[in-house]
Amino acid sequence: MNSIRRRTMGLTLLVFGISMLIIGLASYRYATHEIEGLYDANLAQNARLLESLIQAPLPDDQRQALLSSLEKLLAGAPSDKGLAGHRYASKLAFQLWERERLVLRSASAPSEPLTDAPPGYANSHVSGHDWRVYVLDLPGSSRQLMVAERGDMRGELTRTVALRTLLPDVIGLPLLALLLWWAIGWGLRPLSRLAEAIRQRDPHNLQPLVIHPLPRELDTILGALNRLLERLSRLRVREKRFIADAAHELRTPLAVLDLHAQNALAAEAPADRHESLQELRGGVARATRLVSQLLTLARLEPEEEPQARASGVMGDLLVEVRESLAELSPLAIERRQTLDLIADEAEDWRLAVEPGAMGILVQNLVGNALRYSPDAGRVTVTLAADVNRLHLCVDDQGPGIPEAERNRVTERFHRAGPGAGAGLGLSIVERLLARHGGTLELQQAPGGGLRAVAVLPRPA
Predict the structure, then answer these.
(1) pTM of the predicted model, to two decimals?
(2) Number of neighbouring beta carbons within 10 Å of residue 212
(3) Do 255 and 344 fall into the same domain?
(4) Is the pLDDT of residue 59 over 50?
(5) 90: alpha, beta or left, given left = phi > 0 and alpha = psi -120 to 50?
(6) Are residues 354 and 337 in the same domain?
(7) For residues 75 and 392, which has the higher predicted lDDT (pLDDT)?
(8) Residues 320 and 276 in one domain
(9) Minimal CA–CA distance to 292: which of 360, 372, 370, 368?
(10) Residue 226 falls within a domain, yes or no?
């Protein structure tokens, strides 16, 4: 996979190269146009200069001598061969015509007319060459002056001059690439330091990374990474705590199960063996319930925003309560207990809950009530509603909880008495309610037992 440095470098050079190509083509066209215009102006200027020499107010003998000298000069080579012209100097050719008679021409000019166009600029093809011609009529005479440059020599000079304007860009591109490579590397140096710090970090070290200074963009990434490390640290703490809690709480039930199994193996009478197996079966059921509660509690560990974890699925509280009571009815029948449900059928019992959350809530509250109520006792479940809240009230006929203990029974593994369970049921209930923005209230029931009231907010 390509590095960010190479990708940024390649993209930058591609964009810059395309931009330089477009700008270079535009500059080349503009330069050639301007140089062509400059050469055309030079043609006209040379034509005016030759006109002034030819039209000079001299006596006829002197004029004839001047023309003869000019003709000899243009027909021959320069007298001083040590002086060379400039490489960009134009190679002029001119003709002087009087009607259809060639009066004077330069050595580089052909003998036939350069053009038959009217006065002004014209392009022609004569003697196998292309010419750029400027035609000038001499005033007060029938003479016509033609000054021209060969198209191939003129084009070569034009292209050479125009291309030389692009030479700095061509030479500067590699230098620019080196500077860009250095600049991008310098800009990505904090990212390299961050990557190196992460690479050298011990996998078991979940402490926040501290790197200063960092650019704003990398500081945002570092903050997100540190938040992730913090969450991982909390998850590891939860995992260790869950393992410790499970090991602590399962030690005693497993020891009891082992004891019942030994009694069943050692029993000689069938009745004693049957009794030990029944006790073993009950112990397995209690251990299963304890494991289920431990897993539920682990899933309900609080996060940063408990309410944000509610899925928002609309559920019917009355339907959830009925289904849960139907599942718990065999336990009540076994001990000849009565389960009552009091609710207004016409009331709207809908609320936004996580799937299965209300079932766990009712099973823990009603399960505790059945466990602590005596045989042939009664457990009453009441649903009530007001404008903003729904109330789920569970009354039992058990021994209740002293008022001084009510604030502590929702703590993990806190038992209210020697016959209590694992101390997880009310902790799970309180955690579920907190995730849905609700509360748990523990009061004394009218019959002397415990009244547990779960309050849930109603949707708008």
Answers:
(1) 0.43
(2) 7
(3) no
(4) yes
(5) beta
(6) yes
(7) 392
(8) no
(9) 360
(10) yes
